[in-house]
From TrEMBL:
Residue span, PTS EIIB type-2 domain: 203-298
Keywords: Cell membrane, Kinase, Membrane, Phosphoprotein, Phosphotransferase system, Sugar transport, Transferase, Transmembrane, Transmembrane helix, Transport
Residues annotated as transmembrane: 340-365, 409-425, 445-464, 476-500, 512-531, 543-559, 565-586, 625-643, 655-684
Domain PTS EIIA type-2 residues, every copy: 3-147
Organism: Arthrobacter alpinus
CDD domains, sorted: PTS_IIA_fru, PTS_IIB_fructose
Protein name as annotated: PTS system D-fructose-specific IIA component (F1P-forming), Frc family /PTS system D-fructose-specific IIB component (F1P-forming), Frc family /PTS system D-fructose-specific IIC component (F1P-for...
Length: 706
């Protein structure tokens, strides 16, 4: 335990500022000063990013900011008793006791157990009262040591075990509240409840948070205490950072309801299929455990309660979103990005194969590929194909690559539509979605048709899935009824009403893009460049990328506008990581050690068109990195459109040079944008300076009573 905390890591009655950012920054600095972190900036950025996901304040005036970070050298606890208290997002007000948990990215299981044990001790009123009464840092260290000691588990008497078998319906499970795989974690059920002739409600729960250190275990203990007070039999599975002990299948089978207090997907959710479900973010399990227990009890008596879906009928995105109170905009964004993310592999492979076909077979290969493949083979190479560099073998292999790539690209719109429908209605939506997408291709409705068709198919499948049908028909619903009726509704609407207008709009859009030249093309390049650099792989970036990829298949020697758009998007997306790599070389002292290391990797990431290579820099300093990146991306986008650079490959950066038209200007555009963005970020770091840590500490001194 002494490796986790010592008196140098304790501040009593300290003024660490008036907001969470100041407190976390000062505690990160404290950890680094004691030699337990390699640098402040990386640890602060990781802890702040975790705080921004979910506030770490919990009832009782406690806050537990925490993270796993590459900057942390050994598992560490830093504790501050604040004066003034600071609001960390708890419902009952600001926190005056803050434990900062800093774990290495690869922390071992034993240390993670200790950190989680401390976190769950913080919901005990006697422990927090002792922390507030402590006179010296040594007292705090002693209290933490006592909290982290292994304590013997209460013995389970024969009578209790027997009562457990009678009340739980699970052999060997003691009545009361306990954690999976262990003894009771909040005492046994009250004697009154054991003696009751009415059967206790039996509930199982899963708690999990992204970091898996603090909230996972605090939510578990809070739910356990609330269940004990309510006379409910509760068993909890904590899916934290350490080893997970699953709930006994017999316990799950006997449960009346399930609670998921989680911020991440539940592992093995199919184990709970069919059980009445109460689901919420993990923090609600800490803030409102009694309400969640009450809701679970009520759900167990409600035949219409929400239930854990059966395997093969997973919850839809809409159901999950509705349960979590997600906004309509967020739901739409998730559904569309689901379609785009599943579509991209078809396009990436297909686009590169088409580009390879041009490289091997020359630019006339589209006109001859089908004839070559039907008339020739490796044993009978084409001899009447127009002369090109690699001769008959190149012509044949080029035709093979081009045809495979073209067939792969043919799935672009159906895959987009199919997986948009999947995002809405899960697996039953896939077949209607693919069908509507194929119909959009047939009607020349293109990308927009796939978008509309996928949404229609998903909504139709979801609606049909809500029908109340006889039990004997339920098995046919996801595999026969929903695909059949969903396809009829969505594809019928496309064919009869929507397909023709969307096709006309698509033709008009393509004609407009084809006719763009001069200033209008440059403006489009600027817009695409700004979008690619705005969120570095996020939704806005993906919209611009999907727009370019969707038109790639329509490109040809006669209509190169779609290829120009693809080149613009790819070139602009390469700028942010390359610019950050350049900036770390130009002015090393403006960047932390971790950022300089990331800068070395960013050269390769940028050259490969992986915009996410700039994310570590943007996370640590978004107000300077993102505007600088957008400036460089806009310059690159304008140049590539102005010089009519083309790309027949949807990904790969410089490594698909053979698919780039006007390669010299492609490279020059990227170099100029990289220099502009790199110089801009260095200038902003020099002259748009945030108040440094030392100044902050001077303005808000860290004082301690002892």
């Amino acid at each position: 335990m002494t490796t986790l905390i010592n008196t140098d890591l304790v501040l009593l009655d300290a003024n660490l500022g008036t907001d969470t950012t100041s407190v976390i920054r000062n505690l990160a600095e404290l950890v680094a000063k004691t030699g337990r972190a390699s640098e402040v900036a990386g640890l602060f950025a990781d802890a702040l990013a975790r705080e921004q996901k979910t506030a770490t304040g919990v009832p009782g005036g406690i806050a537990i900011p925490h993270c796993r970070s590459e900057a942390v050298l050994e598992p560490t606890l830093a504790m501050a008793r604040l004066n003034p208290a600071v609001d960390f997002g708890a419902k009952d007000g600001p926190a005056d006791i803050v434990f900062f948990i800093a774990a290495p990215a690869g922390a071992d299981n034993e240390h993670l157990k200790l950190l989680s044990k401390l976190a769950r001790s913080l919901i005990k009123k006697d422990f927090t009262a002792a922390l507030r009464a402590a006179a010296t840092p040594a007292d705090i260290v002693a209290l933490v040591a006592e909290a982290l000691k292994d304590k013997p588990k209460p013995a389970v008497t024969t009578a209790t075990a027997a009562a457990g078998e009678a009340g739980n319906g699970a052999p060997g499970a003691a009545s009361g509240v306990r954690e999976a795989g262990g003894g009771p974690i909040a005492g046994e059920a009250s004697p009154a409840s054991q003696a009751s002739t009415t059967r206790q409600k039996r509930i199982v729960a899963v708690t999990a948070c992204p970091t898996g250190i603090a909230h996972t275990y605090m939510a578990a203990d809070s739910l356990v205490l609330a269940a004990q007070e309510a006379g409910v039999d509760l068993q909890v599975e904590t899916q934290g950072s350490g080893a997970v002990t699953p709930l006994d299948p017999a316990v799950i089978a006997a449960a009346d309801a399930v609670i998921f207090a989680v911020d991440v997907d539940v592992r093995g959710k199919e184990r709970f299929a069919g059980k009445p479900l109460v689901s919420s973010p993990v923090k609600r399990g800490i803030d409102e455990p009694a309400k969640m227990i009450q809701e679970a009890v009520a759900a167990s008596d409600n035949p219409n309660a929400r239930r854990v879906p059966h395997f093969g009928a997973e919850e839809t995105a809409e159901q999950k979103a509705a349960a979590s109170g997600e906004s309509l905009g967020s739901k739409i964004k998730k559904v569309l990005l689901t379609g785009v993310s599943y579509m991209i592999p078809f396009v990436a492979g297909g686009g590169l194969l088409i580009a390879l076909g041009f490289l091997l077979g020359g630019f006339q290969i589209p006109d001859f590929a089908d004839k070559i493949l039907t008339s020739n083979s490796l044993a009978n190479l084409p001899t009447d194909y127009p002369a090109q560099a690699l001769g008959p073998l190149g012509a044949y292999l080029g035709a093979v690559a081009f045809k495979i790539g073209g067939l792969s690209m043919g799935f672009l719109v159906p895959a987009l539509a199919g997986y948009i429908a999947f995002g809405i209605a899960d697996r039953p939506g896939i077949a209607p979605g693919f069908t509507a997408g194929a119909l959009a291709v047939f009607m020349d409705a293109g990308f927009l048709g796939g978008l509309v068709g996928g949404i229609l198919a998903g909504l139709a499948a979801y609606w049909i899935g809500t029908w109340s049908v006889p039990r004997w028909l339920r098995g046919l619903m996801p595999v026969v009824i929903i695909p059949l009726l969903g396809s009829i509704i969505a594809s019928g609407a496309m064919l009869l009403f929507l397909g023709a207008p969307i096709a006309a709009l698509t033709v008009a859009l393509n004609n407009w893009l084809t006719g763009m030249s001069g200033a209008s093309a440059v403006v489009l390049g600027i817009i695409l460049g700004l979008m690619m650099c705005f969120d570095l792989g996020g939704p806005v970036n993906k919209v611009a990328y999907a727009f370019a990829v969707a038109g790639l298949g329509a490109g040809s020697l006669a209509n190169q506008a779609p290829w120009e758009i693809m080149a613009t998007v790819m070139a602009a997306g390469m700028v942010p990581p390359l610019a950050m790599a350049l900036a770390t070389v130009l002015d090393k002292k403006r960047f932390s050690l971790a950022e300089r290391e990331n800068g070395k990797a960013a050269w390769l990431l940028g050259a490969s068109f992986i915009s996410e290579g700039a994310i570590p820099f943007a996370a640590a300093d978004p107000l300077r990195v993102i505007p600088a990146s957008m400036l460089g991306g806009a310059v690159t986008g304008a140049m590539t459109m102005a010089f009519h650079v083309t790309s027949q490959a949807p990904h790969g950066g410089f490594f698909v040079f053979f698919a780039i038209g006007n390669l010299g200007m492609f490279a020059l555009s990227i170099v100029v944008g990289t220099i502009v963005a790199g110089l801009a970020v260095v200038a902003l770091k020099r002259w748009a300076v945030r108040k440094p840590v030392d100044t902050l500490a001077a303005a808000q001194p860290v004082t301690a009573a002892n």
